[in-house]
TrEMBL record, chain A:
Organism of provenance: Roseibium album
Family classification: Belongs to the binding-protein-dependent transport system permease family. CysTW subfamily.
Transmembrane segments: 12-32, 63-88, 100-121, 133-154, 175-200, 232-250
Membrane topology listed for this record: Multi-pass membrane protein
UniProt keywords, alphabetically: Cell membrane, Membrane, Transmembrane, Transmembrane helix, Transport
A GO cellular component annotation in the UniProt record: plasma membrane
One matching Pfam family: BPD_transp_1
Subcellular location: Cell membrane
GO-annotated biological processes: transmembrane transport
PANTHER family xref list: PUTRESCINE TRANSPORT SYSTEM PERMEASE PROTEIN POTI
Keyword presence, Zinc: no
Record InterPro entries: Bact_Polyamine_Transport, MetI-like, MetI-like_sf
Protein name: Inner membrane ABC transporter permease protein YdcV
Limits of the ABC transmembrane type-1 domain: 63-250
TrEMBL record, chain B:
Protein name listed in UniProt: Spermidine/putrescine transport system permease protein PotB
A biological-process GO annotation: transmembrane transport
Record-annotated membrane-spanning stretches: 48-65, 111-133, 145-167, 187-210, 245-266, 297-315
Localization annotation: Cell membrane
Pfam families given in the database record: BPD_transp_1 (PF00528)
Domain of life according to the entry: Bacteria
Organism encoding this protein: Roseibium album
Family listed: Belongs to the binding-protein-dependent transport system permease family. CysTW subfamily.
Ranges of residues in domain ABC transmembrane type-1: 107-315
SUPFAM superfamilies in alphabetical order: MetI-like
Keyword Glycoprotein: no
A cellular component term, taken from the record's GO annotations: plasma membrane
Membrane topology: Multi-pass membrane protein
Major subcellular location class: membrane
Length: 261, 328
């Protein structure tokens, strides 16, 4: 169509790719610097910061703590979010719009306000700051994402399949378990991975609802406040590689699954 | 009980090969299960109520509950309530905000910053979304979009730290400028509204890119081709066709990014300085000290939430009227 335009736009795209990747690549490089001082240029290289990560017991334990929280929160969000999606999708009832609005509310409340509201509510319910409170806040915050993803998938389910199952004698529960649920699996898996990453990466809710034990982002934040060091780069790089790897794998996996069904 | 499940009658021949019944067959012929299902699905109305009860209870107590509780606490004089102390209704927490201009500055700064950063994100990501949706083949679109998604799986804190390394006095940008002999002394990017902006745009770009991309992708290419055939220039085509028809994507992207930007706490703490204190830090301050400041924090959070919702609502109304004006 328009060659000049096209070339210009592709330059913009690749510049944007650089913009999103370069800061992370620089951060990774800095983790191999053989000096305590953060800054360029890097003259000599070392792996000591990485071996040091495992000597400091706080890092592996924060990592495990974050993973456990993410898994528990995701299980709750997936259960609740799927249920809400089944209620909302393809059904007309009084107050559906209000129900939808309330469902997506936690995703729209700005981070700090959501953290404050959860903190007050947890106090009111008598939940002590700590793992339970973080799991609960993450679970509530992630429900809208599950509901939206599952609703999108559910809207493409051919109605005739459910009708056929019902005609063959399946009650609504069996029809749901044998037709709807298997059809939703790719969406549920995709949403789970997204929730896991969201929860694992979350800072503000974990920070305000946490007890003495820090999650990984809270630990990195605390270390950053007391000064930059290549040790933080090593920790951050490990977290980065893991989250990106899980994300890429999930993307490929769910794409293949939704193609198959 | 089974009057509404008449089709079940067709299950008659099953008895002949009962041995080969599957798990599901066994389950559906198990009497307690059938009783429960029969009761639950006796009428469409009851079926719906059972389906709706749990989600309704959940959204009311878990989604709306925290917000309402925050609102209630914002009108009290003490929270958490110490034993033996009586809690009173008061408007003091709100009066404290409106009475002391020291709080106005971070408040308006937050809203202004969020607006400016949202606009920057829009300007930055629109060409990228446009390129992906209009100039790339279907197969490559997914790959190239995925490439942009990867950095966004990385957490808020890690990405903020990456920006700190990029912009520090001995950071990559300053070293590069020095190496090019453009500067002698490092430019102090860090702890300014600039570093904060770079960080926030970096964190929110994806939330703008995706709505824009899906809006642009839905736009039929034939519209532009028809306009080109009729002699419209590239700029006219963009202004009269592409832009008006993607206003919906722009509006949802901007709303999302604005709301997210107002809620950042860690990024302004790490990238900003004393001259860029945002309202999130003010609010957080009331929760770090003695408990009796919680109601003030709750009131401030409520004020900010109401302001953010009001502004995004007004913005969406404006976009809607723009959209209608263009189709008429």
């Amino acid at each position: 169509m328009n060659r000049g335009n096209r070339i210009l736009l592709s330059c913009v795209y690749w510049a944007f790719v650089l913009y999103v990747f370069v800061p992370l690549l620089l951060m990774i490089l800095m983790g191999f610097k053989d000096s305590k001082f953060i800054g360029f240029p890097i003259r000599s290289w070392t792996l000591d910061w990485y071996t040091g990560v495992f000597d400091d017991a706080a890092v592996p334990s924060a990592f495990v703590y974050s993973v456990v929280i993410a898994v528990l929160a995701t299980m709750i969000s997936v259960f609740v979010g799927t249920w809400i999606a089944v209620l909302l999708e393809g059904r007309k009832f009084l107050g559906r719009t209000a129900m939808f609005g309330l469902t997506v509310l936690p995703a729209l409340v700005p981070g700090i306000i959501s953290a404050i509201a959860f903190r007050i509510y947890a106090r009111w319910l008598g939940i002590e700051p700590g793992m339970g409170a973080i799991v609960w806040a993450h679970a509530v915050h992630n429900v809208p994402f599950v509901a939206l993803v599952v609703m999108a998938r559910l809207s493409t389910l051919p109605k005739s399949q459910i009708e056929a199952a019902r005609d063959l004698g399946a009650d609504p529960i069996i029809a749901f378990l044998r037709i709807t649920l298997p059809y939703l699996v790719p969406a549920i898996l995709g949403a789970s991975i997204f929730c896991l990453l969201l929860s694992f990466d979350d800072f503000v809710r974990s920070f305000f609802l946490g007890g003495y034990e820090p999650t990984l982002p809270v630990l990195i934040f605390a270390k950053l406040r007391s000064g930059m060091s290549p040790e933080i780069n090593a920790i951050a790089t490990i977290a980065l590689v893991l989250t990106a790897a899980i994300g890429i794998w999930a993307e490929r996996f769910t794409r293949r699954m939704s193609k198959d069904t | 009980m089974s009057d509404d499940v008449a089709p079940r009658a067709g299950r008659g021949p099953d008895t002949a090969d009962r041995k080969r019944l599957t798990f599901w067959g066994t389950l559906s012929s198990w009497t307690p299960y059938r009783l429960v299902v029969g009761l639950a699905t006796a009428s469409p109305r009851r079926q719906f109520l059972i389906l709706a009860a749990f989600p309704l209870l959940w959204v009311l107590t878990q989604h709306l509950g925290p917000m309402l509780q925050m609102l209630r606490v914002s009108f009290t004089d003490a929270y958490p309530v110490a034993p033996g102390v009586e809690q009173h209704f008061t408007l003091d927490n709100y009066a404290r905000f409106f009475g002391d201009y020291i709080f106005w500055q971070p408040f308006f700064r937050t809203l202004t910053f969020a607006g400016v950063f949202t606009f920057c994100t829009l300007i930055l990501t629109y060409p990228v979304a446009y390129f992906l949706a209009r100039h790339v083949s279907r197969k490559n679109q997914m790959l190239m979009l995925l490439l942009l998604l990867i950095p966004f799986w990385v957490g808020e804190i890690v990405r903020t730290y990456a920006i700190m390394i990029l912009l520090g006095n001995t950071g990559a940008v300053n070293q590069l400028l020095k190496w090019l002999s453009l500067i002698d002394r490092p430019i102090p990017f860090m702890y300014t509204s600039f570093s904060m902006g770079v960080g926030i745009v970096y964190l929110t770009a994806l939330y703008m890119l995706l709505p824009l991309y899906s809006a642009l992708e839905k736009l039929p290419r034939s519209y532009n081709e028809a306009a080109a055939d009729l002699g419209a220039s590239a700029w006219t085509r963009f202004r009269r066709i592409t832009l008006p028809l993607t206003l919906e994507g722009i509006s949802s992207g901007c709303t999302l990014v604005f709301l997210i930007s107002t809620g950042f706490y860690a990024t302004p703490v790490l990238l900003g300085g004393p001259s860029t204190t945002v309202f999130a830090e003010t609010i957080a301050g009331f929760f770090h000290v003695a408990g009796d400041e919680w109601p003030t924090g709750a009131a401030f959070a409520t004020i900010m939430f109401v302001a953010a919702i009001f502004l995004t609502g007004a913005f969406q109304k404006l976009m809607n009227s723009l959209r209608k004006g263009d189709t008429n």
